[in-house]
Amino acid sequence: MAALLSLRDLRVAFDGVATLRGLSLDIAPGEALGMVGESGCGKSITWLAALGLLPRKARVEGSARIGGTELIGAPPALLDDIRGGRIGMIFQDPASALNPVLRIGRQLAEALRLHQGLTGEAARAEAKRLLDIVGIPDAARRLNAYPHELSGGQNQRVMIAMALAGNPDLLIADEPTTALDATIQVQILDLLGQLRRERNMALVLISHDLGLVAEHCDRVAVMYAGQIVEEAPSDDLFARPLHPYAEGLLRALPRLTGPRQPLDPIPGTVPDMRALPPGCAFGPRCPRRINACRSTQPRLREAGRGRRVNCLNDTASPAASGTSGRMTGDAA
Amino acid sequence: MLRFLSLRLGRAALTIVLVVTFAFVVLRLSGDPAMLIMGAEASPEAIAAFRASWGLDEPIWVQYFAYFGALAQGDLGMSMRDGRPALDMVLDRVPATLALTVPALLIKIGLGIPAGIYAALHRDSAIDRAVMVLAIAGFTVPSFVLSLLLVLLFAVKLGWLPSGGNQTLLHAVLPVLTLGIGGAAILARFTRSAMLEVLNQPYVRTASAKGVPWRRVVVGHVLPNAMIPTVTIIGFMVGNLIAGAVVVESVFSWPGIGRMLVTAVANRDLAVVQTILLLVAATMVAANLIVDLLYGVLDPRLRQAPAARGGH
Ligand SMILES: Nc1ncnc2c1ncn2[C@@H]1O[C@H](COP(=O)(O)OP(=O)(O)OP(=O)(O)O)[C@@H](O)[C@H]1O
Ligand SMILES: [Mg+2]
After folding, report:
1. Is the domain of A209 the same as that of A148?
2. ipTM score here?
3. Distance from the CA of A320 to the center of ligand 2, in angstroms?
């Protein structure tokens, strides 16, 4: 199937520090893609860069195309049409993501006017319908509420409703439930899944939680230090992770049921983007490191059906079970 | 709302009473008006007579209650110098002061807020840096220094404007500029930082992410939030409309409240000093009250008790 959206060699640098280091990714219509990785690995800036939402000082290179339209370097008017139109985005902390001095109804109506040309009563009726769709009880009255009068979960539903106002082909949900209680988390994720199926809307779900992502997404992209290190269908990734980092993430997950743990399974810390090692960025923390990893940067390559991996010595390599390649003793 | 209002009004009244009391006590303790007004050569009998006629021989608490008793009936007492009602004398001077402070306030708002907004929106640009340098200069240079600089430049060197007095409209230019520039600098700095704070808020990114054009984001989402803290400063400036020109009026020999206050304090003209302080306090308290009410209008989060928040 032709991709809905393609990122090609997307790069972001802040003050000369390469932070997103060449990311390529396709998203098919209606697909749910998960993105996981430790804090600071570049999950958010990938999409902020694609939508032109980074501060001016950020240098963005590469390509982000949706339906043949290039977004990188696009004129503001075109980006404004795409943002909230073909691509909706919701964020982590719903309480601060809504404008505190404007009523919910007004914030929804603004999106409806921009993307559907609705005003006045028509906008209000549609705003109410959207609130109904996302499961906010007593929607007509809630239109007059301010964000602080709603709970976090309700505010996130409002954010989703607002993103739906433009009938997006793609919804990017950047840690949409991190700030919410566990039970509300489940409800919001179920809502997103349901909306995706009903509307054949593609979904990018960003999270720290590999388990959560695998449960709600067809495909997962694992990121490390500004790059994708592994990309695979969720089931395949769970069955057999190829990248040592993905393997480490998986091993840290509790089996089947049980409480989810914070994501910090792998010894060592996230590298400083200003001083990356010359070879593989994960090298210093990698249990499978071989000599080549010190000097050669691995490249993302095909690794079977729908899979890509960015590793010189992935778990499928011949050296896999041998001890010859292991260099755990001298990690930096 | 009614409770809120009566609470605030009560607090306002209390503030005024405290100011008046404080002034009353300090003034009575800090020197004897009889000596000052009658002169050093006056006979002891004359001084005693003066004190008796103004009630200065009574214990201070008797004087205090007498003062408040009269105040309750709208009587603010007579000037010991002129024998005229203090209130009339003070009110006569109000227009002259407002003639400086109101135009200055307009300059502060009209210059300071746009400069602050522009600087924040073009952060780190050459203009931002220039605005900030000027703002810090205008903020740190005391008003008497600034007024002297302006006099040196426009009155002495260029000879365009008079250096003091109040005969023509031109006489108001330098004092108004002195007041306006300093205040504009404060407001520009404050507006800029309020803007920067809001520009970093997630809801601004949300607005952009839903396709609102940048101009509309600024006008519709950033400004309404950034103006909330700015209102406090403007309210403070409004509260200073009466008292804010003391130094400048003295430097430019402008016959307003400020100069009257300086003279009255020097002369221990108790009723006049107290009337001015009362007026100043009332203006400040009123401005504060308006700011509080305006806050409620501008920020819905302050309209209700936090306990009234909705559940899931
Ligand atoms: N405005 C900015 N200026 C400078 N650096 C930035 C800026 N925004 C992001 N970065 C840097 O870019 C890197 C990636 O940030 P990003 O927000 O994409 O991480 P993330 O993967 O989304 O992490 P998290 O899980 O914490 O949200 C981080 O190292 C961060 O410090
Ligand atoms: Mg993020």
Report:
1. yes
2. 0.87
3. 33
